[in-house]
């Protein structure tokens, strides 16, 4: 059987099922037949021995010295023991003393064999001239001072016929049983696989347009229910990703279009104006400023693409404390300008080494700290804390700004997200900073979130897996 | 700015005619002699026609690309500095470009001040310049050894970063420097992003307070859309 031809699982299951059943039945038939055969053959031998013993008691020599069988022992003259019994009695010199008429004068088993029937009942099968096989028992018997060899047998023909019939019945039953079993198996397989088929047809109808549809889970505990749940989970993530991509593309287009519109408007106005000089310069400068904005957005997008492409943990080993030190060194002037104090407890843990793309992590931390400075009021404090637990290093950046609404805690990491408060801030950027930070941290095996339980300001928590700890620091 | 005897000859190989004419005009206005070629073949012909000091080479060209031309130039041992321009601004591309034999590498989009600064830096390797211990702009003088700054004899207290920034502006000799250049050369940051732009703006403002506030002549200038320059006002 070419398995490729049997495409459907239910057909394949049925074929397997039938094949296994056929094999079991074949073994069963062989065993039953062999057992039955042996059993009946033993029974026949047993009967023959009994009959022989009976016959020994019934044989006698009459007055003329001829061997006779006492016939009146059997109350039932039609007994098949009488009719079917084949018997021959020899004396030791091989002279036939008695032969049943149904042998029609033929010898039963030929001349005596050496030691035949010496002290027990010898059994063998002989073949008569008409082809019938006879099961034969021989025994030496002493009567009235003479030793005779008695051979007694029954034709095996009826037995063999019975066994043949028995085998035929068994063999005919097997295909019938297989047909029934196959039919039942097919139905069962179809029934069992039906939910799968329904799942497939539902799944087929789910496209990008109706990603919100889900598979029906009838029994969440069985295998199919489990599979449907897994599939639904996949659809969840797919839908989420799709929506993200969708809004992202829209937002990106908008972010790019706004400066383009400004550039175009400024350029067109400048061309229409008759006078030249200072105004032209103004227009050109404005165009260049918008171009810088465009570049900024593109730079952010490229950074996102780079972070997205960074599948595994990057090649660099670095210290988060060191990175934070560099970041605060660069951004310190911004804080200083607005009299924001940067307070930290961070000298204790300098032996901790992280692994990843240092440049990306640095951008991430830079964005987070810049965000905190941006939203801090003048004369306030930003507090950094640093701790290690369970193989993770945790960095928190706590400011005293307006804080984050609970409803915004998630969306604040969205691409091109700018909070209502941030839109008025100067240099608010394209709104990619925190999403870059989130992507980078997540790709490095860590997590970033805003602590929802702080009462004053916002507290950004960054957790990253520790690569190793250098002792002796 | 270079005087006439030092006029260098620069060949620009760029297929985008708009960008090319801007490049030619811009580089010419900086006092160089510029020829334009729109394809690698034409560029190669031009290189053989006249002595060229610097080649500004675009990577993406029709038929034969910039890397191809660069390889041939190096194989033929033509003595010319090469500045590559490309929009594939990844580290790998940079490395590839520099390995192929480019002397410098500039990603599109670039700021013009940066391009001119790079061109100058490459030409300076040909035309050696005296480096001195002190740099002066008007009455402002910077001592590169002691890292001390003074204006009209009055010492100005500067942080390390502020001194670096001022020195960088001064060394560019009145030329406008872009934020990208400051980010890379003063802050040593590999990528430029919003936080750093804020930092640069704030730092320039602080520097302006220290250097210019108590003087009537302003030396630090913001060129809108381009960047900053340190020079005596004209006129």
From TrEMBL, chain A:
Residues annotated as domain HAMP: 190-243
InterPro entries assigned to the protein according to its UniProt record, in alphabetical order: HAMP_dom, HATPase_C_sf, HATPase_dom, His_kinase_dom, HisK_dim/P_dom, HisK_dim/P_sf, Sig_transdc_His_kin-like_C, TCS_sensor_his_kinase
Domain (Histidine kinase): residue spans on this chain: 251-468
Reaction catalyzed: ATP + protein L-histidine = ADP + protein N-phospho-L-histidine
E.C. number: 2.7.13.3
Subcellular locations according to the entry: Membrane
Any one GO molecular-function label of the UniProt entry: kinase activity
Organism: Granulicella cerasi
Coiled-coil intervals, chain numbering: none
Entry's transmembrane regions: 15-35, 169-189
Keywords: Kinase, Membrane, Phosphoprotein, Transferase, Transmembrane, Transmembrane helix, Two-component regulatory system
Lineage, uppermost ranks: Bacteria, Pseudomonadati, Acidobacteriota, Terriglobia, Terriglobales
Broadest EC class assigned to this enzyme: transferase
Keyword flag Phosphoprotein: yes
Keyword Transferase appears in the UniProt entry: yes
Entry superkingdom: Bacteria
Protein name: histidine kinase
TrEMBL record, chain B:
Location of the OmpR/PhoB-type domain: 132-232
Matches recorded under Pfam families: Response_reg, Trans_reg_C
InterPro entries in the cross-refs: CheY-like_superfamily, OmpR/PhoB-type_DNA-bd, Sig_transdc_resp-reg_receiver, WalR-like, WH-like_DNA-bd_sf
Transmembrane region(s): none
Top-level taxon in the UniProt lineage: Bacteria
Entry-linked Gene3D superfamilies: 3.40.50.2300, 6.10.250.690, Winged helix-like DNA-binding domain superfamily/Winged helix DNA-binding domain
KW Isomerase (keyword) present: no
CDD domains xref list: trans_reg_C
4-aspartylphosphate found at: 58
Record SUPFAM superfamilies: CheY-like
Protein's recorded name: Response regulator transcription factor
